[in-house]
């Protein structure tokens, strides 16, 4: 098992054992990734900070629901953060604002950010860009704008089955592309 | 374990967040009982998590950590912020390797548990069967020993019984020892009607036959039985077998199937 993932799992175990410090450590390791995602979805710093805090409070109160069979702790944290952000977005009038202002692609949109875009961002962006645009758009709109399958069907005038099929195909392709790269990375890091 | 895979097409929708909260909750409940969906989520989780890296970098204000720690009641302090982004990426990168390893491990464990459970069940059945066999063997050995005791008794007397009109092909041989009991081996006995049994009688100089006991033949019409007889009965003059109601009767009521005279 990778040391980083092992460390995250150890922190979750400590959180389950009610060690508050472990929440802080987990926060230190992942707050920036999660905050970036939440902010990308909500587009409002103070709301994003509230949601980030909610995410880690949830981790504190529900750590025992982490299921290693469903993926790494990071995948779990990202899922919680995304779901909380999307739920907030859906509940908000902010939603209209975000939907209207959001570019179709979740681009690295300001020059400073572009300049500092990390290698990993570029790799994931490249993988996403390699998908047929009809698959990519559906995944982006669901992931970053919180559109449900029926909303996507309505918006793009597609049968629900087509929405499902395209998202499935897109995610499977993404999985293929990223696994090749990340395996190489992971083994390079281990060396 | 229910392998209801009706929500099998939901894993991708779940991971990209295209489900309503109600559908999401339903799918999460479904995950508790569907190994196939768990495997699918695990396989796709790294790709779904990687999408988070598309968000432009951003950093929350330090106040968030302070508020969080105040809420969970732990210590303050800002920790290792600088390495966080890189650590996150490495962790996500490794999560694919982890997912594969865990997946394989989980599958392996599941397989192992299933196979151990099967072995345990089998062992239990074998143990039960073994106990039964031991008990059967012990009983058979005891019977054999008793029979041998009768056959080797110094006072053993042999009586050959011949089939009567109701069962001309039947025959039996009985060995009787006053001290050790009565052994009978019969063959070609007609099958018993329902609710009936064969009953063995010892004929003596007294008018009333003495009941020795009951027996039933196997499907091949053979029977082997061992009876204890009272040590004080008068000397037998012969043996007889009748068919009687289940449980036996104090005095014979049915037709004679086998009769033999003592020598």
What does the model show?
The complex is a heterodimer of chains A (191) and B (263). Chain A is mainly α. Chain A has two domains: 1-102, Orthogonal Bundle (Rna Polymerase Sigma Factor, Chain: A), CATH 1.10.1740; 106-191, Winged helix-like DNA-binding domain superfamily/Winged helix DNA-binding domain (Arc Repressor Mutant, subunit A, Orthogonal Bundle). Chain A has helices at 3-16, 20-42, 45-62, 73-91, 94-101, 111-116, 119-129, 133-145, 149-156, 160-190. In chain A, helix 3 (45-62) packs across helix 4 and helix 7 packs antiparallel against helix 10. The radius of gyration of chain A is 18 Å and the shape is globular. The relative contact order of chain A is 0.08. Chain B starts with 10 loop residues before the first helix and ends with a strand. Chain B folds into two domains: 11-126, no CATH class; 157-261, Immunoglobulin-like, CATH 2.60.40. Chain B is an alpha+beta fold and 263 residues long. The radius of gyration of chain B is 41 Å and the shape is rod-shaped. At the A-B interface, helix 1, helix 2, helix 3, helix 4 and helix 7 of A face helix 1, helix 2, helix 3, helix 4 and helix 5 of B.
């Amino acid at each position: 098992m990778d040391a980083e993932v092992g460390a995250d799992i150890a922190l979750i175990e400590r959180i389950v054992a009610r060690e508050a410090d472990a929440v802080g450590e987990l926060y230190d390791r992942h707050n920036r990734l999660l905050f970036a995602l939440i902010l990308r979805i909500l587009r409002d710093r103070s709301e994003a900070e509230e949601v980030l805090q909610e995410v880690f409070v949830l981790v504190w109160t529900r750590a025992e629901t982490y299921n290693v069979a469903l993926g790494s702790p990071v995948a779990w944290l990202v899922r919680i953060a995304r779901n909380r952000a999307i739920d907030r977005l859906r509940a908000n009038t902010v939603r209209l604002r975000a939907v209207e202002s959001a570019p179709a692609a979740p681009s690295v949109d300001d020059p400073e950010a572009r300049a500092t875009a990390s290698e990993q961002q570029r790799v994931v962006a490249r993988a996403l860009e390699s998908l047929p645009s009809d698959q990519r758009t559906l995944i982006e709109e669901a992931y970053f704008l919180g559109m449900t399958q029926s909303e996507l069907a309505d918006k793009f005038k597609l049968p629900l089955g087509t929405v499902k099929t395209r998202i499935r195909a897109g995610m499977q392709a993404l999985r293929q592309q990223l696994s090749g790269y990340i395996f190489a990375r992971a083994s390079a890091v281990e060396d | 374990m229910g392998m209801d895979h009706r929500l099998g097409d939901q894993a991708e929708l779940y991971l990209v967040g295209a489900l309503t909260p109600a559908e999401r909750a339903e799918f999460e409940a479904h995950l508790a009982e569907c190994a196939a969906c768990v495997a699918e989520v695990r396989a796709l989780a790294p790709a779904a998590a990687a999408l988070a890296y598309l968000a432009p970098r951003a950093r929350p204000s330090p106040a968030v950590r302070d508020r969080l720690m105040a809420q969970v009641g732990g210590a303050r302090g800002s920790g290792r912020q600088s390495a966080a982004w890189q650590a996150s990426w490495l962790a996500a990168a490794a999560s694919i390797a982890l997912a594969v390893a865990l997946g394989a491990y989980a599958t392996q464990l599941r397989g192992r548990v299933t196979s151990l459970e099967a072995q345990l069940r089998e062992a239990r059945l074998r143990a039960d069967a073994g106990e039964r066999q031991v008990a059967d063997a012990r009983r058979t050995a005891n019977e054999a020993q008793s029979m041998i005791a009768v056959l080797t008794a110094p006072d053993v007397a042999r009586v050959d019984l011949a089939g009567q009109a109701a069962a001309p092909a039947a025959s039996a041989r009985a060995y009787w020892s006053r001290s050790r009991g009565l052994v009978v081996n019969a063959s070609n006995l007609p099958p018993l009607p329902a609710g009936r049994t064969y009953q063995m009688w010892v004929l003596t100089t007294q008018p009333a036959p003495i009941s020795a006991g009951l027996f039933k033949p196997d499907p091949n019409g053979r029977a082997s039985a061992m009876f204890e007889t009272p040590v004080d009965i008068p000397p037998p003059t012969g043996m007889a077998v009748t068919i009687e109601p289940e449980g036996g009767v104090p005095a014979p009521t049915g037709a004679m199937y086998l009769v033999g005279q003592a020598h």
